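pipeline: protein-struct stage 2 | run 1193 | Lysophospholipase
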Amino acid sequence: MLFSNSYLNVFCSLSKQPKANVIITHGLGESSCDYLFLIDFLVKNNFNVISYDVRGHGKSLGKRGDIKSFHIFLDDLAQLVKNVKQNSSMKIFLIGHSMGGIIVNNYVIKYKNINGAVISSAPSREVSNIWLNYPFYFFSWWQRKKLNFNSSKIAHVPLGKGYHPYRLESVSYRLLRNLLVLSMRYLNKNFSSYLTPVLLLYGIQDKIISYKNGIHLLDSIKSKDKNLKLYHETYHNLFHDIEKSKICNDIILWLNDRI
């Protein structure tokens, strides 16, 4: 597959006998390198996988950990979907984790042109945070929020700093406001337009994004094909935690039923 996007760093992992195409959108501060286990799992089960570094992340262009509008993320993904469609007639499914889940949730509302979505550990409600709701009173846009990938809240066995060299050390408060406030308002205002088949994945022990966000999504979106799976031993990063193989198997089963 060939892709044309001057901003995004795109990776293609192709199966010898593909059944469908899967596009993976990573979480905050991560890069596509963080999803090698999931990518390999999908390819072995006969899916083409297109992974990419979100604008301002990994090897993609853009100011590190910053964005003017969350719609830019959606439009970048739309261009990627368009490129996949130009190269393949097979169905397209999206997988988004955390920030990636925010992007995918809003994408299917805005564009409605893919065959299904898998969402993991994504918030579904606006964050009640005075610093993000009234940002001009407390900080400038260029101030940064540090990220800690070694936090015990992420997974049972947190990944060390050297695990992947492309992770961000910090992100702007403008990015956080776009993701946790503005995009949440857009999502909740447009639940009636969420008609895409969706699989929701959440860890019961997630200390960053409560699994209750998954229940809220399940109750709110209007898709007739929606499923929620909860994992009792998993924290926030489902694809790096102790139930990751089970989670990947559940994704494969869900995808196979919709091809």
